[in-house]
């Protein structure tokens, strides 16, 4: 795990109890990339909160359009983080997910064909 060694903390120190886990977590934020990764994860996770609140408001399970926008932004941020970390599994996974999110937005925003004159929709 490269981010652990760049912070001057190795997993054995944490496991051996030489440092407290809160110290390790807080020291992680001194690395801007770790902060970016946490921010990306927060954006990505926020889509579920938005979906949950929208569903509660309507009383049925729905997926609002903003869910897909948050999915794309969060996934793109996570992909940038994965590229920085040089993690091919993470890069591929986020890239494939983004294509699904974009496709959903294409379907949502696709112009609807108009019914023929005299036909009620």
Mind explaining what this structure looks like?
With 121 residues, this protein is mainly α. The chain has a domain at 31-109. The chain has helices at 2-6, 11-15, 21-28, 32-58, 65-85, 88-109. Helix 4 runs antiparallel to helix 5 and helix 5 runs antiparallel to helix 6.
Features:
121 residues; mainly alpha; 6 helices; elongated; disordered N terminus
Largest sheet: none
Radius of gyration: 21 Å
Which class of secondary structure composition applies to the elements?
Answer: mainly alpha
* SSE pattern: HHHHHH
Helix content: over 70%
**Total of DSSP H or I helical runs spanning 4+ residues:** 6
Number of strands: 0
Distance between the termini: 57 Å
* Mean of all residue-level pLDDT scores: 84
Model regions low in confidence, pLDDT < 50 over at least 5 residues: 1-6
**Outline:** elongated
Query: Which percent range describes the beta-strand content?
Result: under 5%
